[in-house]
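The authors assume throughout that readers already know how a fold can be written as discrete tokens. In essence, backbone conformation is discretised, so a fold becomes a row of integers matching the chain in length. A single example would do more here than another paragraph of explanation. For illustration, here is how one protein appears when written out as sequence plus structure tokens:

…
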Amino acid sequence: MAQDHPKRWKRWIAIAVLATVAGVLLVHGVISRSDAFSVASSFVQGHPVVEKTLGKVVETSLSWGGGQMSMSGDSGSAKFTVNVEGIKDSTRVYVELRKRGAWEITYARMLPSSGEPILLKDVQ
């Protein structure tokens, strides 16, 4: 019986790790398919400075661990780090949104691999 005890702990640790990984994957999937992320992605894809820097944007995705959202009824807030791949280069864009009926971008900053961050939008 004493020999079974360590096996049980190993099993519970494995189950806890799997549950944590599944939860992270689920949250990442939900956030990356949200209306808020869709607004952020469209903003990035259509921004002239992003296109000038990276070339035509071919893909955007939510960075791992780069999403935070809260909502209450018709209001909310979100912060994302968006991976952006253009035909010339790739980078990340940090985007903040608020919801007052509809999602709107309040702040965006491109983080190029070389050079200083570039402010894309700042609503006070």
Remarks:
- The CA atoms of residues 76 and 99 lie 5 Å apart.
- The two ends are 65 Å apart (CA to CA).
- The mean pLDDT is 85.
- The beta strands are 57-72, 75-86, 90-100, 102-111, 118-122.
